[in-house]
Records
---
Amino acid sequence: MSNGGKHLVIIGGVAAGMKAAAKARRESPTMKITVVTDEQYISYASCGTPYFIGNIVKDSKKLILRESPYFKNMHNIDVFTRHQATAIDTKSKEVKVNDLEKGQYLIFNYDKLIIATGAQPIVPPLPGISLDNIFTLRTVTDAFKIKSCVDSGKVKNAVIVGGGLIGLEMAENLVLRGIKVTVVELLDQILPPLDKDMAMIVQKHVMEKGVDVVTSDGVKSFEGNSSNFVTKVITGKRQLPADMVILSIGIRPNTKLVLQQINYET
Ligand SMILES: Cc1cc2nc3c(=O)[nH]c(=O)nc-3n(C[C@H](O)[C@H](O)[C@H](O)COP(=O)(O)OP(=O)(O)OC[C@H]3O[C@@H](n4cnc5c(N)ncnc54)[C@H](O)[C@@H]3O)c2cc1C
């Protein structure tokens, strides 16, 4: 591939975006490569974030593998953090980008475009959902917020909504931090991809480690105190005390940007 004077723009700067940028540079030493991401951090390991919250990974630098200067200095890749792509015009080959710090719009012309905008956690529109200390975990910034809440020492009871992989990793790590944890799962088993008999083995192990697991029960609402902090999770069958809630009920792909473009073209 020889793309001497061409410009590759990549939207999204985590696993897919930065890997695409690095691979493009290996293929073409001279191509201009630009990455835009709405986040402050790039190229980080989401997988380690539960263990950072649990104090097993002690240094946040182990989560953030590379920062923008590394990509500029080592690979001549320009990374624009806190820049959100808001529209794509495929006819004129332009991406409209909002500089989130300055509140200014920029236009990036491209010859090739890679969309690596990933996904975001599902947040159900339940009563009380906007109370403080109800979190999702996707980004390093999310992990910093959750860890800071745990480090405050004020969290005695946590409820984890969703018994999938992220929910259970959070349960493991919050228990390590001395917090009483209840996992609430709507289905009749945790870890839905597993057969039930296998999931029951995991559930038994998790409960032996001190986690309460309730299945076949769904969260209906959240209650809080006068300072707007969550205090209780109301499920179909229970009321659970909660100083912290982690929502881990799945993710949705970030398709808004692309769908806008499809609508624009039709
Ligand atoms: C807690 C946790 C544990 C995990 N553990 C594992 C594991 O053990 N093994 C494993 O394989 N995977 C694991 N994963 C999944 C893995 O982290 C994801 O698959 C990976 O992050 C996906 O990378 P991505 O680049 O496709 O998307 P994302 O990580 O979602 O990155 C997309 C980026 O694009 C940005 N963006 C979106 N829209 C725009 C826009 N319009 N303009 C600019 N930027 C935009 C987003 O803000 C984000 O920074 C885990 C994930 C989490 C949250």
---
Amino acid sequence: MREIVFGPVRSRRLGLSLGVDLLVPKTCSFDCLYCEIGPTTQKTIERKCWRPTEEIQKALEVRLSDPTLHFEVLTFAGSGEPTLHQDLGKILKFAQKLTDRPICILTNSSLVFRTDVQRDLCAFDIVLPSLDAAIQETFLRLNRPVPGLKIEDIIHGLKMLREKMTGQMWLEIMLVGGINDNAQDLEALVKAVEYIKPHRVQLNTVARPPAYPEAKAIALETLQGLCDLFTPKAEVIYYKDQKENQYRRVSSEEIITLLTHRPCPSEEIAQALGYDYKDTLLVLQQLVQTGKVKTKIYQKRVFYYA
Ligand code: SF4
């Protein structure tokens, strides 16, 4: 079983992300064709203490008291759907007292029609919900939800959440070849996004071994060609086909020189110097741990400075 607090992992969407896993593998309301954790063993919509709350709080307390630990965001994610934990809101409040880093959650959106779940999600700095289909038939085929879930209720729940929340909503759409990449599904997704109005839309496709072989990736160029359909314009978060040699080798000295001029968030450092983002995060982690670079929080973002 995965540790309750894991990582930090280098994430293209979130930076250096320390994970919190509230569940036991694999507890989810869906059984997506593309799931990288494998088939769902506990398919449920029940909100309960899947892992004891005190155990989770203790693990957070221990890990976050480590003075050598460096991370940019704390992310609730892991072995299934985190909103299934009934003490989500309580655990979040506990974590907020222990860290000044932004706190994020990855959710499959399945319970977002519930007002108690909306209330819990509203307290996060960034909510990253997924929405892969806006047509019920495709939803059933791709996400294989607990019986009775309706995609129209989920879309409406996301709209309600977006209206109530003060943080950011970054909506992810996973496009799977031959399943939801046809004109009808895309048109329905575009309309759903217009209705929900997330702050960002992020397109992805299958990049790791999927739970079921039917889940096929679509080409990077195809994803890129779909970005303009969405409002706001979508971003592609699938990088597998990009050539590694298009990036410069990451240099600690260059990073330090840049940071003596101005504090920067990690993605700005990678962009400014033409580095691969994940490699940049690795070097930044080492620079912070050796005391050559420091961090400060400004407007809920981690800035590095030298
Ligand atoms: S919602 Fe996430 S964890 Fe659940 S089956 Fe789908 S991809 Fe896996």
